[in-house]
């Protein structure tokens, strides 16, 4: 299958130093820390620390929703685990997904990841007592992947879901793929991708978009381009999110002909490019010194009904400043300000230094005023250049400059 071959080929060409050894075998179930129940000392630890937990010591029958309220109101997460262990020994104990999710979320916020493993040990032992939804495991993967930085553990959770009678959907599967792309672990992507059938996951457009993004970021543009042909095979349609990474990849390599061919392909397939797509092209052209083409593209996007944003005008402004076209840049800056946009500090700095080179004192005075109005403070080096420009304009001597700087 071409899709599998492309992903495997891309992985073999990526940077091996960036990959990590991740245990993601589909045959391995979720592994849990084996800690004994005597890790936490008597109920004295929680009973003396948080009055919210006092009801757990009473003999009143507690409904599951009452238990949730008790644990929700606990502020110190260090009391939660011993309190849970005490509750689990009560006759009215009822394990629920809601309670486990609450404990995991509180421990996640406190970055108490070992305690999350303790909760998951209980989940495994009592998995026959309650049903677990995909949202439960998705949230767990999010905590391990985004908060704990334990991507291998998040992968174990994904492959362990069937052990609990819960099969992942493309939502959970794509989360792991996106996690690997964000971490630039390109070598690991194909290992997860080829396991989709074993997990009962059907490849969708979102999955293909993630793969294309990963291939583009790893520099394998040819393989990413070929993946466009997989959309109709999967009964899906590419979107603007499909083409933007490809266009960015070709722009970064200076291959603008290929980038504009993709833009034309989008139009033929009736996929409207958005502001981000145009900004990628304008920024790429600007970095290569092709300012005029960037300005033409700005006008083109307006004609197509695509509204430029501050980032669009900022890129054009940078291009004009790079080419020392200061008067045009000042006009662009004036328009941006009149539309309620705030030019960047760097663009103000470039503008001031450019005007200093041409001794354009009046224009520089306007720029400095706008700069200060937007909360930017010129640094000492910039003020020196401004003073030299003013003195030079008035044919004063170096002694006059020294006299000015004494104030």
Automatic annotation (TrEMBL):
PPR repeats lie at residues 204-238, 239-273, 274-308, 309-343, 344-378. Pfam families: PPR, PPR_1, PPR_2. The keyword Repeat applies. This is Pentatricopeptide repeat-containing protein. Belongs to the PPR family. P subfamily. It comes from the Eukaryota. The lineage of its organism: Eukaryota, Viridiplantae, Streptophyta, Embryophyta, Tracheophyta. Keywords: Repeat.
